[in-house]
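Archive record:
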Amino acid sequence: LAQGSANGAEWRTTPLWGLRLKRNFLHDGRAKTIEEAIKLHGGQAEQAAKDYFKLSEAEKKSLQAFFASL
């Protein structure tokens, strides 16, 4: 699907506003948790996903608390 300046091979990541209200994640809703959505990311987000899983449990909890505030 082409959207704006993104061609059919690219997806535009939606803003994280309202993230705490969502129950399904990713463009197709297949991820049931934020952590699962991070794990399923590839392409340009692949390194960010790898970096997330290198965080300590305390760091992950902090980031998850931030997501829950959005």
